[in-house]
Amino acid sequence: MGLEEIYTELVSEHSRNPEHRHPLPGATCSLKGHNPSCGDEITLQLKVKDGVVEDAAFTGVGCAISQASTDMMVDLIRGKRVEEARALAQKFIGMIKGEITDEAELEDLDEALALKGVSHMPARVKCAVLAWHTLDEALKDEK
């Protein structure tokens, strides 16, 4: 199985069975993200305590790319300090926009690296970055 197939499988799995798509009891922060061009809509819920994203989840609807991207993001940011989570969001957005291409620099995106190919599909870029923009916005005021 080649790298492309593995990536496609990862995206499929995360979009079909998103582990983190559910309401989050005790969320300290909730922000809705909307992509008017395709109708994707998520509500990201975070539980932030002492500068750490203790837990996260999302609800909403969208295409396979937006759902998979959101689920992978939640996997990645749980347990991270707010600054780390925001840095990962900036790195992911940079990757999708084609501004960061160095594989070594992108390694800490883990499974979200599977979405790198989206950078070559301009119509899907907004789908991939929706959750990450929402995360960055939600954490802007968290200390």
TrEMBL record:
Protein family per UniProt: Belongs to the NifU family.
Entry's Gene Ontology molecular function annotations: iron ion binding; iron-sulfur cluster binding
Limits of the NIF system FeS cluster assembly NifU N-terminal domain: 7-126
UniProt-listed InterPro entries: NIF_FeS_clus_asmbl_NifU_N (IPR002871)
Name of the protein in question: SUF system NifU family Fe-S cluster assembly protein
GO biological process: iron-sulfur cluster assembly
Source species taxonomy: Bacteria, Bacillati, Bacillota, Negativicutes, Selenomonadales
NCBIfam families: SUF_scaf_2
Species assigned in the record: Selenomonas bovis
